[in-house]
Amino acid sequence: MAIFKNLFRWQRGRQHSGYDKMLLCGAYWPVKFDTYLIYILSIGWIKSR
Fold it and tell me: Which run of H or E residues covers position 19?
């Protein structure tokens, strides 16, 4: 299964937008979900309030 291939491995975030993510757990049944640990590489692109 593809979910086991990515389990506990760092991956680039969507569109390489400055964060990495690690899949911690997930399930397909009875409720489909996934949980990631997010590591922000640079916060320069986050606007301050």
Answer: strand 19-27
**d(Cα 9, Cα 43) in Å, to the nearest integer?**
22
For tokens 């409720």, the residue is: 31
pLDDT in tens, the chain (49 residues): 666 788 899 998 887 777 899 999 988 899 999 999 999 876 665 555 5
pTM of the entire predicted model: 0.68
Domain ranges of the chain: 2-40
Q: Report d(CA 22, CA 11) in Å as an integer.
A: 6
Question: What are the structure tokens assigned to 42, written together?
Answer: 């640079």
